[in-house]
Specification:
Layout lengths: L12 H18 L8 E5 L5 H9 L4 E4 L2 H8 L10 E4 L8 H7 L2 E5 L2 H14 L4 E5 L13 H14 L3 E6 L9 H13 L4 E3 L6 H6 L4 E4 L1 H4 L6
Helix pairs in contact: 4-5
The chain binds pyridoxal-5'-phosphate.
Length: about 230
């Protein structure tokens, strides 16, 4: 191909953000929902400084990260300059990292066992900082996947709130990769309703429109915003 070929260059991050935002708006319209009722969490795991600068320039301020230490490297030195930044932990958390997670994150989406609830409460008391918490539910009961089993979710939510005093505001799920996600989104929504929880973090690049149709309040989108991730 000659350099003057009109073949379109790869979409820029700004163009991808615009495209994802308009798909969110369209999904909200189709579902009769206010677009302001859905928060776009940009999943910034593995991204370099250039990509982060580009997405910040679009006004995006809510980010999801999978690993505590990686997130510290990416965000700790930017926090002071970015009022309104919201960091959400969306990957599994070991109890020995609970204090670091409480120090950095505004929301921890992956509470899935009582031992971790206790560690988060201890860290919150020590640091005087209480991130909001979502309980991750393993809606497909997949053995390799994190999350509390659906049958055990009510008990964990109650213990986290009542025994440990955590600010549990909702639920998160990652449906099985090879299934229709809709029944998983519905299950998450019904567990949330039973427990008086309003936040539903569900839907990723491949299924965020379906999740919005089923009541998602937060969609976690990586690839559709940044392009394919660099594999470490
Ligand atoms: C990586 C990741 C995402 C984003 O996935 P994409 O398919 O790239 O949009 C969302 N949620 C969790 C928990 C993830 O680990």
């Amino acid at each position: 191909m000659s350099p003057s070929s009109p073949a379109s260059p790869p979409a820029s991050i700004a163009e991808r953000v615009t495209a994802v935002r308009s798909r969110i708006d369209a999904a909200c319209q189709a579902a009769g929902r206010d677009p302001a009722s859905v928060v776009l969490t940009a999943v910034s795991k593995t991204q370099g400084a250039e990509a982060i600068d580009a997405i910040l320039a679009t006004g995006q301020r809510v980010f999801g990260e999978n690993r505590v230490q990686e997130a510290e490297g990416r965000w700790a030195n930017r926090l002071a300059d970015l009022p309104g930044l919201e960091l959400r932990l969306i990957g599994p958390l070991q109890t020995n990292k609970a204090e670091d997670a409480v120090a950095l994150f505004d929301v921890i989406e992956t509470l899935d066992r009582e031992k971790l609830a206790r560690a988060l409460a201890v860290a919150a008391a020590k640091l005087g900082r209480s991130p909001r918490v979502l309980v991750q539910v393993n809606t497909g009961a997949e053995p390799q996947k994190a999350g509390v089993l659906p049958d055990e979710a009510d008990a964990l939510i109650q213990t986290a709130r009542d025994t440990h005093g955590l600010n549990v505001e909702g639920l998160m799920c990652i449906p099985p990769a090879d299934e229709d996600p809709a029944p998983h989104f519905d299950l998450l929504k019904s567990i949330a309703a039973c427990n008086g929880l309003s936040v539903l973090s569900m839907g990723m690049s491949g299924d965020f429109e379906a999740a919005i149709g089923r009541g998602a309040t937060h969609v976690r989108v990586g690839t559709a915003l940044f392009g394919e991730r660099n594999r470490p």
